[in-house]
Amino acid sequence: DGVVVSEKVKSNNLDVKIPESELEAEEKGAEEERPRESESNILDVSSDYPRDKHISIQRHLADLEKLADLREDEKKPCPLCPEEKFKACYSHKLHRHLQNLHWKVSVEFEGYRMCICHLSCRPVKPNLAGDQTLAKMGAHYHCIICSATIIRRTDMIGHINRHVNKGETESRFITVRAPKSSYEVVKESATDVQVLPNHSTPQKTDSYFNPKMKLNRQLIFCALAVLAGERKPIECLDAFGATGIMGLQWAKHLRSSVKVTINDCNENSVTMIKENCHLNKMKVKLNIKEEDNDETVGDGEENSDTIEVTKMDANVIMHLRSFDFIHLDPFGTSVNYLDSAFRNVRNLGIVSLTSTDISSLYAKAQHVALRHYGCNIVRTEYYKELAARTVIAAVTRAAARCNKGIEVLLAVALEHFVLVVVRVLRGPTPADDSAKKVRYLIHCQWCEERVFQKEGNMVEENPYQQLPCDCHGSMPGKTAVLLGPLWSGALFNTGFLRRMLLEAVQYGLDEAQPLLKTLVCEAECTTLKHFSTHSPGDENKQEECGVYIKTPNTSAESYLVHGKRKSEEMLRGTAKRQRAEHSAEHPPFYYNIHRHSIKGMNMPKLNKFLNYLSEAGYRVSRTHFDPMGVRTNAPLAQFKTVLMKYSTPTYVGAQAEGPVHLPGEIQVGEEVPAAAEIKVEEAELAEDGESGVAAMFTQSYPTHCAAN
């Protein structure tokens, strides 16, 4: 009868018969509405996308060409451009158009390409005349995740990244964590961690992980391993866990020597830290403090393979609990957490902090350095060491407020971070001694000579007299600036660095070993050829902060605990000798050999120049702050004199090769006697070529004192 029972609709307990013609009309209407719904609703980002996605989103260029139905004998329009913008053409021209205009500027996401679309999908604002011109036809991209249309390609990439950062890869309206299939497993130092695809974007991800900080993590691990050798067990805190990679390395390698606590204030980070602990077969002791209740979840008895995971603010956990080792690695500056870190840290404990706000520390944003660290700095040739001393000065003031002093064990400033490791000494006396080492620095802006201001509160009539240079007398106006307050003490502890090097060799930390060797040479202010990786027998008793630290070769009789003497009278003399050696610490700051080069002269090789300075009677070493830097106790004038003496003219011509001898009024050994005697023949040759070299020296020396 032309009527079929296609669907039973329960309405008032009656079966309603729908004609077949009406059913077909409804199905056609539903098929027409599906594409509209797909544009307004979310596109499922799975292995099989729905059929009704926008035509500008394709996997391959061939799929885009299929939409155009290319045929050699017929003209076809572009499927992504209106007729007014691109007229129908033959297949070869249309192929080039699709490839160059749409496909090459597409945005890729999980195997799909979001091509640029010129259709009238996006409303265009009319001009003053009221009509929409063809030049303003809206070119845009269609988001594969939501219904947004973005004009610029860079904005589209940022839009997709924001979706990924929020975990919105499946649903537009429900924010969910990324599925486990999207995690990446990163392995470092035999430790596996799961990270999100955007793990390298700070402040936009819950699992920030920077592979470039591997060296930083190895240095911190070596410092903790040295502390673990002094006393066991020690409680250590990673205040900003993120993925938990650092705390996992501590627990996995040091085992029963440490009790690791990993903290983070982000709930997703805490969940990921727990998953990474299980990934590395570590048991987790959760201690998450909520607003109303405290919940402790234990996955077994607490033993050497148990890591405690806490969710609270870093300042709160450091106020509530005491630790032997604390590491601070926030995003940016760490000055906001210094007071809490020194409040409850145990005596002879270690506090390490990583500062990544290098724009302010390296004097690119001087106002920020003044705001965060209360320090006035300018860009100098030794700006990296200036950054390290700025951070240590802030650490010293924070420790002194808690009646604690510090001894700097390690200070490293590299491209991406500034790492400072200090040992904490309780008591007002160590606090006063440390606070006295925070001074101002007088820096000559003309020749870059520098000297720390003398101790005392008396106002000097002419502070320029403290500078070794005479730029203020020969140049008009003010030539020097006052920088600081800065840390004026030593940046390294040689005994601690040697033990760190032994730990790095023991655990196979290849990246940290070359840097530690350089740091040991820099701390002793010696060249690399005088250094041996094996600790000598007389270093089995290391003194740090006036405290003997027991090492594997040290007997129990020689072990002292913070001022309590347990050995015989002989050790007192040994302590005095070691204090005398310790007082001869490495000279502050360094000179860049390229910055003080003479125009028209070829400099000697760096290693040869170090030998020349050493032969002149000065202490000299290379520095990790600058690959072309020279750390020496020689004044800048003597530094330039030695550099000029052993430099050769760029255009030698008929001149004999060899060192350039200076006029009689400039001698290399005025303050320190030279190690080698000057031969008579060289003196005669110097008299012959004295006039030409002296003229060159007088022209270039004063005008290029501050040349790059």
Automatic annotation (TrEMBL):
Chief localisation class: nucleus
SUPFAM superfamilies: S-adenosyl-L-methionine-dependent methyltransferases (SSF53335)
One Pfam family named in its UniProt record: TRM
Alphabetical list of PROSITE patterns matching this protein: SAM_MT_TRM1 (PS51626), ZINC_FINGER_C2H2_1 (PS00028)
Region (Disordered): 16-46
GO MF annotations in UniProt: tRNA (guanine) methyltransferase activity; tRNA binding; zinc ion binding
Keyword Chaperone: no
Highest taxon of source: Eukaryota
Keyword vocabulary terms for this entry: Isopeptide bond, Metal-binding, Methyltransferase, Nucleus, Phosphoprotein, RNA-binding, S-adenosyl-L-methionine, Transferase, tRNA processing, tRNA-binding, Ubl conjugation, Zinc, Zinc-finger
Coiled coil: none
Subcellular location: Nucleus, Nucleolus
Chain intervals with Basic and acidic residues compositional bias: 26-39
GO CC list: nucleolus
InterPro entries for this protein: SAM-dependent_MTases_sf, Trm1, tRNA_met_Trm1_C, Znf_C2H2_type
Domain C2H2-type positions: 143-163
Catalytic activity: guanosine(27) in tRNA(Tyr) + 2 S-adenosyl-L-methionine = N(2)-dimethylguanosine(27) in tRNA(Tyr) + 2 S-adenosyl-L-homocysteine + 2 H(+)
Any Gene Ontology biological process: tRNA N2-guanine methylation
Similarity section: Belongs to the class I-like SAM-binding methyltransferase superfamily. Trm1 family.
Protein name, per record: tRNA (guanine(27)-N(2))-dimethyltransferase
Gene, per the UniProt record: Trmt1l
